[in-house]
Amino acid sequence: MLSNYRLARHRHKQILAVAMAGRMMIDGLFSSVESEDLQHVLAEMESQQPDRPNRPAIPYAAVSFDLDGMDDERVRYEFRFTKSEIYQILPHLRLDEIQWSQRCRPDSLTAFCIVLRRLAYPIRP
Questions:
Q1: For the chain, which residues make up each domain, given as ranges?
Q2: Rounded to an integer, what distance in angstroms lies between the CA atom of residue 15 and that of residue 99?
C-alpha cells in the first residue's frame, strides 16, 4: 500500500506523462510506432495504481488528559517524575507563551506530559 505522499507522487508522474505525450502528439515529434509504445507504457502505469487510493478515515475517540486522576505509581512510571515534581517544573517552562502550529493548542500540562512520556519511553528502570 502506498503512503499519501507516494500516492501523490505516483499520480503526479502519471499526469506529467500524459501531458508530455499529448504535447508530443500535437507537435508531431514521434511516429505511430512510438505512439503505440507510449500507449503501452500508459496502460502499464494504469495497472500499477494502488488498490485503495482513498482509504476511509480511521475513527477515534477523543479523550482528555487528567494527571490528577492517575495514581502516583503510574505517573512516576509513565513520566519519570512525581505529580508534585511536574507541577513544580511546569511554571518555569512558560509553555503558555509558545506559538503552537497546526492549529493545535494544548494546555501546558498536557504538552509537558507528552514530552516527558516520549522521553521516558525507550528506557525503563
A1: 4-47, 72-120
A2: 38
Instruction: Please report which residue ranges of the chain form alpha helices under DSSP H.
Output: 4-27, 32-47, 72-79, 83-93, 108-120
Alpha-carbon Rg for the chain, nearest whole angstrom, is: 27
- 2 has a pLDDT exceeding 80: no
Is the distance from CB of 69 to CB of 23 less than 8 angstroms? no
- For residue 9, the tally of other CB atoms under 10 A from its CB is 12
Which residue, 79, 61, 73, 69, is CA-closest to 121? 79
27 has a pLDDT exceeding 60: no
Q: CA–CA separation, 24 vs 4, rounded Å?
A: 30
Residue 77 φ then ψ, to 5°: -70, -45
pLDDT of residue 38: 67
The alpha carbon torsion through 59, 64, 70, 74 (nearest 10 deg) reads 50
Q: What is this structure's pTM?
A: 0.51
